[in-house]
Amino acid sequence: QVQLQESGGGSVQAGGSLRLSCAAAGYSYMGWFRQAPGKEREGVATIESAGSRTYAYSVKDRFTISRDNAKNTLYLQMINLNLEDTAMYYCARRRSTGGLCVSSVDYWGQGTQVTVSS
User: Fold this and answer.
1) Backbone angles phi, psi at 85, to 5 degrees
2) How far apart are CA 103 and CA 54, in angstroms?
3) DSSP string spanning the chain?
4) Do 56 and 100 form a contact (C-beta atoms < 8 A)?
5) Per-residue model confidence as pLDDT tens digits over 93-117
């Protein structure tokens, strides 16, 4: 059974940084997604076992997705956070195709809240 558990969310001022972690994430195709209040869930970053990464345009050059295979842990390092990054962030296992598409996900974590204030 797939059980993904996120941690590391919190409140931060604009311009600050956070690192999210996702335990039990030792699958080939993984990703981070987020959902802001009143908005649809969207893909943020994905990673594959071979190491290739994909980022949403809005977070490119600010967010970095990585994984520690020995620890079965997925990470999302976020820097220079802005108000638009406020959302619930979800770790997800993806099917082999689909990239940042929400429909590519077959398992979701519970989510961790990130709140950015001015």
Assistant:
1) -85, -5
2) 16
3) ----EEE--EEEETT--EEEEEES--SSEEEEEEE-TTS--EEEEEEETT--EEE-TTTTTTEEEEEETTTTEEEEEE-S--GGG-EEEEEEEE-SS-TT-GGGEEEE---EEEEEE-
4) yes
5) 998 877 899 999 999 999 999 999 9
DSSP β-bridge partners for residue 75: 21, 66
Longest dimension (CA), the chain: 40
Any residues with CB less than 8 A from the CB of 59 and at least 6 apart, and which?
Answer: 44, 45, 78, 85
pLDDT digits (tens, 9 = 90+) for 64-77: 999 999 999 999 99
